[in-house]
Amino acid sequence: MIKLAIDAMGGDFAPKEIVKGCNLAIAKNTDLELVLYGDEEQIKKYLISNPRISVVHSPKKIDMGEDDPIREIRRNRDTSLVMAFQAVKDKQVDGVVTAGPTQGVIVAAHLIIRRIKGMKRVALAPALPVIGGKSRLLLDVGANLELRSEHILQIAQFASIYLQETHNIKTPIVGLVNIGAEPSKGREVDQETYQILKNDPHFNFYGNVEPKELFSCPCDILVTDGFTGNMVMKTMEGTAKALGDVLKEEISSSVGGKIGYLFMRKNLRNFKNRFNPDNIGGANLFGVDGVVVKAHGSSEAFAFYNAINQAYQSVRGEIVEKMKKIISDVIVDE
Amino acid sequence: MIKLAIDAMGGDFAPKEIVKGCNLAIAKNTDLELVLYGDEEQIKKYLISNPRISVVHSPKKIDMGEDDPIREIRRNRDTSLVMAFQAVKDKQVDGVVTAGPTQGVIVAAHLIIRRIKGMKRVALAPALPVIGGKSRLLLDVGANLELRSEHILQIAQFASIYLQETHNIKTPIVGLVNIGAEPSKGREVDQETYQILKNDPHFNFYGNVEPKELFSCPCDILVTDGFTGNMVMKTMEGTAKALGDVLKEEISSSVGGKIGYLFMRKNLRNFKNRFNPDNIGGANLFGVDGVVVKAHGSSEAFAFYNAINQAYQSVRGEIVEKMKKIISDVIVDE
Q: For residue B134, is pLDDT > 90?
């Protein structure tokens, strides 16, 4: 049995859509058990009755002031987010899924669950839209602003284990996001990281990947520091939005366009859905001592269901234990 | 009369398309004089006869090895690129336009023309596609990997002068590309830059801009270090390409899509053109003591014509002289 804690109050459409996502996940996986943290009365309005779902009442919801997330987490021990993370720490559950605010999730993971011993940094790793039949993980997208080469090495190892165990990719290909293809390109940290990744036996290093190749390169995993990864991810988002707007504008600018639209409405809807984060799932937070999946803040039921599945697969694949093994091997080597 | 040097051998379609772009520019601007550097025999095949165009034969074309652009430039004094830049240095012309390799252009600008005295760094500043009726400059996109806050301040001042003098924007709005909107967001350099930009009287500071807002923010100018700017630019490129591919795939996946396409072919072509760099122009290299415009390597005649116009406007707006004035005022103040 795999047991997950759910922050039922996190996200724009909580608790309704979160609870509906839980209902879907429970129906789908017969060896899944969920513990929902949040306002019991509200949750029960939407919850199906199932012996594998329970609710733990938490009176408060985290309200992320941008000013001091650390203080927010410390002060609000009786919020759904903090209580769900505490359940992971106390080994009452195998992992946690939340659509709460990113900064809150990262801070709570650090303060409550804590990093795996020997793991220098954590990393947030969302999947990019599937293009050319391929999904790709991008990390770190913001758990750390700056990362040294040995940190990037560890998060690449972790991502590699994750894809091996949950996506059945035997030797995931890892690329380093950089401004040019040659090993000499980039800042000092990028050049160092190139060399350190090249020499690591735990995965298959492809080399540098320029962001214009992000969706066409053969890589399964794209690594960089959190500042750069966050920039890349948000630029994708902004560009996709801008292109969508321009497309709409151009189509509605003529009668031909409007008629054409009637014929290809379904095609354009599919096009839009391909870039909809709700269809992709959540982002794993690699590096803490437990499975943590952060769903999008705007998650509706299906998106949250996908995020639960991702946590379920991560627990089943024992990715945390396997990463611990690699780290302890390295420590023994040293 | 405004006199520009043209590197007629730089770019994928040189010299044919470059020369044709020159022909267009000469026909359009009656106070423009061009000096083309390159293989005289080849150039003359395409060149219209006009007293305001002359050719200076340069026997060689620069061949940018990725290894050592500085050595390439030093060694190859008789190439079209180096000779055209030398003409700026010798004040024979007011500026230079080239579609040659970016690294070669940046190195040649440094070694031959040199930076304006007191200008700490140079910056490459392309314009983004026009969205919402607005064009935006992004800089630096790769002339420097890392920039300190005082460097970013100077390039923001320069870009601001450029838009005032060439685009008639009285008080251009400057945004700092960052991972969050609040002043406390980003790396130490970003936080410092925020404060220094906020306190500068030479332009209108908007604050931080997340890349997901790049195409919707009210800013005319978006500043960041060269590594980040390059990442952002290339991510846009990669995302636009991926979206175009997916759109094509979805449209051709059904009969309805194919019929719809027949009706909106023109609309989709316009959509594509909106993101075509050829319609946008070149990138100014701000900070050297002369006007330098780098056209896209894939420039055809119209794109190169646009890049010439950009240099023409920059010379006419006396942007280099106006930046020198600001710098000398600052030096006097100190």
A: no
Q: State the pLDDT confidence band at A253, using cuts at 50, 70 and 90.
A: confident
ipTM: 0.90
**Omega of the bond prior to B15 within 30 degrees of 0, cis?**
yes
Kindly write down the DSSP assignment for every residue of A259-294, as one continuous string: HHHHHHHHHHHHHHHHT-GGGT--EEEETBSSEEEE
Question: DSSP state, B73?
Answer: H
Chain B interface mutation, best of A106, A188, A264, A272, highest count of B Cβ atoms under 10 Å: A264
One-letter amino acid at B44 equals K
Cβ–Cβ gap A267/B246 under 8 Å: no
In terms of Cβ atoms closer than 10 Å to its own Cβ (0-12, 13-18, 19+), residue B114 is middle
pLDDT in tens, B237-283: 899 888 888 888 888 888 888 888 888 888 888 888 777 666 667 99
How far off is chain B from A311, nearest CA to CA, in Å? 27
Residue A217: helix, strand or coil by DSSP?
coil
**Cβ atoms of B23 and B30 closer than 8 Å:** no
Question: Are residues B182 and A66, on separate chains, in Cβ contact within 8 Å?
Answer: yes
The sign of the dihedral angle between the CA atoms of B16, B305, B313, B29 is positive
CA proximity to A100, closest of A90, A85, A114:
A85
Average pLDDT of chain A? 91
- The answer to whether residues A289 and A143 touch, using CB atoms and an 8 Å cutoff, is no
Strands A173-177 and B204-209, how do they pair? unpaired
Q: Is the pLDDT of residue B193 over 70?
A: yes
Q: Do A250 and B268 touch (CB under 8 A)?
A: yes
- Chain A positions touching B257 (Cβ under 8 A) are 263-264, 266-267
Look at residue A221 and tell me whether its pLDDT is greater than 80: yes
CA distance A92 to chain B (A): 35
pTM here is 0.91
Distances (CA, A) of B205 to A149, B130, B193, B195, B199: 35, 21, 11, 10, 9
Q: Of A240, A246, A268, which is closest to B239 when you measure between CB atoms?
A: A240
Predicted confidence at residue B331, as pLDDT, reads 63
Nearest CA in chain A to B68: A184
Which of A227, A253, A259 lies nearest to residue B263, judging by beta carbons? A259
pLDDT at residue A99 is higher than 80: yes
Enumerate the residues of chain B whose CB falls inside 8 A of the CB of residue A263.
Answer: 256-257, 259-260, 263
User: What whole-number distance in Å separates Cα of residue B238 and Cα of residue A27?
Assistant: 39
Q: Mind telling me how many Å the CA of A161 is from chain B's nearest CA?
A: 27
What is residue B330's predicted lDDT score, i.e. its pLDDT? 72
How many helices (H) and strands (E) would you count in chain B? 11, 12
Instruction: Sort out which chain B residues have CB atoms less than 8 A from A247's CB and list them.
Output: 247, 271
pLDDT value, residue A278: 62
| pLDDT at A235 (0 to 100) | 95
Q: Of B238, B262, B265, which has the smallest distance from its Cβ to A215's Cβ?
A: B238
Residues of B whose CB is below 8 A from A222: none
Residue owning tokens 């630029």: A235
Q: Cα separation of A5 and A49, whole Å?
A: 17
Provide the token pair at A266.
């379904």
